[in-house]
């Protein structure tokens, strides 16, 4: 039996990724959003908290009542929505990156440790992880925030705690799978220590699975942080956070729909593009799906 | 003078049930003994599940026997003191070369591992040794830069042999090294092994179920049946006058084997 690993070189994976139209569209949108998030504070026309008290609920410029000074209109307090969205992009993406980074690092470390624990301890740890995984991620995050109290830092802790078990499980199970392979025994017989075995021999084989998990965690984290903001459990007003913006403008959806549609669209586009890219990466890296 | 490599009364059993209350043990090896001199080949034959592969894994240190002794040049290599000598001198050729090569690292990276742990070579010396060994097994040194999936089955088994040779071992344990290859490639690999044995004075423990091959290849033969040593002796004696019924059945069932007249 001959196993053909696609990503023995990453160039092959890139070729597959490039042929995937959805993934490429997602990648382009995601790159634009990232650039906007990075340069947002410099290009945004106004301070996101500044209130133009005589310019309340002005619609975007494509509407006849639009005002050229406020490209995407203003909200109920006379704040420029474009400025708030740009600042919100930076805030949301920064939070998402931080959350995923912390969750991934701790999850991978715990998972790698678990793979080398003895049977009993590993079972115990993994059952705890299963317990956490059995809740829908948002529900668990809400429960955690309910216990430790609302606020942005607590929402971040909650999302981190929700994401960790996914990384633990995928790391532990991929390492355990790999350890059964002959090449691991070969490396052991070549004198490799457990640590070296993990870092030089097993690690390159589990990075595809972890990469896929990483991209999907981004969309989960973004969505959960926004949802907590929307429920008033995460970022608090007047912070320009997309979820918080959504909930603040909920009351005006009937006569000022843009106040709610625009932040919603921002969340939707970001999550969609991350998922498209994630799908593309998964297809490109998983030999089983494209052979 | 002591033999190069001796095994005495090796036994091994596995726990079959995961239930801690039930202690059912499956004995896979029961009192296996042999001895081997430089340049000699010992063939281990038996049907599937007879414990051949377990024996191979014990001989190279991938598993520890429950009881019994292993001596290399008169030293008890099961003791911690001689672990390094064991690792350097007794090396394994895997049955499935493809599975034994890490798909995501280059041949060079795979072959470097034993040199890193078994020698004090620097990076250049390691590359030189890898090139030298690749040439010994009939591959080009620049192949080291490539990934395993770019090679054919026969080439991969040559890489497996190169990996076994890197540390200049004295004994090579080959666990059915040709059974996953097609016949024309099998002959090439067998000839390569014989050629290397001549040049390097290697002793082989050759695990096989192909009696025709064993007859052609080996000096001694050890017949395993359900983990028990049915017969052990020079190939010509065992094959012409089998003492046990099991050996006789094995010989009768084997197609490739030619009866000596």
From TrEMBL, chain A:
It is a multi-pass membrane protein. InterPro entries: BP-dependent_transpt_permease, MetI-like, MetI-like_sf, OppC_N. The chain crosses the membrane at residues 21-43, 95-117, 129-149, 214-235, 255-278. Its main location: membrane. Belongs to the binding-protein-dependent transport system permease family. OppBC subfamily. It is found in: Cell inner membrane; Cell membrane. This is Dipeptide ABC transporter permease DppC. GO terms for cellular component: plasma membrane. Coiled coil: none annotated. Keywords: Cell inner membrane, Cell membrane, Membrane, Transmembrane, Transmembrane helix, Transport. Residues 93-278 form the ABC transmembrane type-1 domain. GO terms for biological process: transmembrane transport. The keyword Membrane applies.
Automatic annotation (TrEMBL), chain B:
GO terms for biological process: transmembrane transport. InterPro entries: AAA+_ATPase, ABC_transp_ATP-bind, ABC_transporter-like_ATP-bd, ABC_transporter-like_CS, P-loop_NTPase. One of its GO terms (cellular component) is plasma membrane. It is found in: Cell inner membrane. Residues 5-251 form the ABC transporter domain. It is a peripheral membrane protein. One of its GO terms (molecular function) is ATP hydrolysis activity. Keywords: ATP-binding, Cell inner membrane, Cell membrane, Membrane, Nucleotide-binding, Transport. Belongs to the ABC transporter superfamily. This is Peptide ABC transporter ATP-binding protein. The keyword ATP-binding applies. Its main location: membrane. The keyword Transport applies.
């Amino acid at each position: 039996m001959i196993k053909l690993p696609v990503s023995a070189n990453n160039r092959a994976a890139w070729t597959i990724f490039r042929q995937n139209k959805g993934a490429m569209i997602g990648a382009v949108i995601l790159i634009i959003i990232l650039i906007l998030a990075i340069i947002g504070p410099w290009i945004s026309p106004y301070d996101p908290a500044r209130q133009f008290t005589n310019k309340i609920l002005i619609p975007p410029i494509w509407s006849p009542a639009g005002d050229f000074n406020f490209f995407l209109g203003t909200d109920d307090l006379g704040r420029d929505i474009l400025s708030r969205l740009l600042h919100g992009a930076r805030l949301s993406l920064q939070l998402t990156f931080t959350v995923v980074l912390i969750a991934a690092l701790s999850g991978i470390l715990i998972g790698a440790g678990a793979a080398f624990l003895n049977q009993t301890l590993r079972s115990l740890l993994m059952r705890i992880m299963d317990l956490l995984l059995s809740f829908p991620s948002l529900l668990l995050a809400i429960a955690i925030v309910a216990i430790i109290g609302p606020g942005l830092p607590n929402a971040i802790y909650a999302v981190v705690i929700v994401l960790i078990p996914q990384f633990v499980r995928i790391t532990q199970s991929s390492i355990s799978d790999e350890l059964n392979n002959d090449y691991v025994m070969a490396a052991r017989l070549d004198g490799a220590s457990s640590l070296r075995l993990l870092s030089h021999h097993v690690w390159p084989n589990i990075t595809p699975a972890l990469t896929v998990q990483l991209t999907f965690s981004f969309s989960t984290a973004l969505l959960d942080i926004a949802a907590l903001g929307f429920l008033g459990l995460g970022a608090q007003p007047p912070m320009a956070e997309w979820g918080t913006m959504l909930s603040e403008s909920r009351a005006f959806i009937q006569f000022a729909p843009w106040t709610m549609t625009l932040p919603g669209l921002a969340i939707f586009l970001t999550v969609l593009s991350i998922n498209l890219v994630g799908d593309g990466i998964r297809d490109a890296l998983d030999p089983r799906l494209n052979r | 003078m002591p033999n190069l490599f001796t095994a005495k009364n090796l036994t091994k059993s596995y726990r079959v049930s995961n239930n801690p209350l039930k202690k059912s043990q499956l004995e896979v090896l029961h009192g296996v003994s042999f001895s081997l001199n430089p340049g000699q080949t010992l063939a281990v034959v038996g049907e599937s599940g007879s414990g051949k592969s377990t024996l191979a894994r014990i001989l190279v240190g991938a598993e520890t026997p429950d009881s019994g002794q292993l001596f290399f040049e008169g030293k008890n290599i099961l003791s911690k003191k001689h672990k390094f000598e064991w690792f350097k001198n007794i090396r394994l050729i895997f049955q499935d070369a493809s599975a034994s090569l890490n798909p995501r690292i280059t041949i060079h990276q795979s072959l470097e591992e034993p040199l890193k742990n078994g020698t004090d070579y620097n990076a250049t010396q390691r590359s030189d040794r890898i090139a030298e060994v690749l040439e010994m097994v009939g591959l080009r040194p620049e192949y080291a830069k490539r990934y395993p999936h770019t090679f054919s089955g026969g080439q991969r088994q040559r890489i497996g042999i190169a990996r076994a040779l890197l540390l200049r071992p004295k004994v090579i344990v080959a666990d059915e090294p040709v059974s996953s290859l097609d016949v024309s490639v099998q002959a090439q690999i067998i000839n390569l092994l014989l050629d290397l044995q001549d040049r390097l004075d290697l002793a082989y423990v050759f695990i096989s179920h192909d009696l025709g091959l064993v007859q052609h290849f080996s000096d001694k033969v050890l017949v395993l049946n359900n983990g028990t040593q049915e017969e052990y002796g020079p190939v010509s004696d065992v094959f012409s006058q089998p003492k046990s019924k099991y050996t006789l059945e094995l010989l009768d069932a084997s197609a490739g084997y030619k009866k000596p007249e």
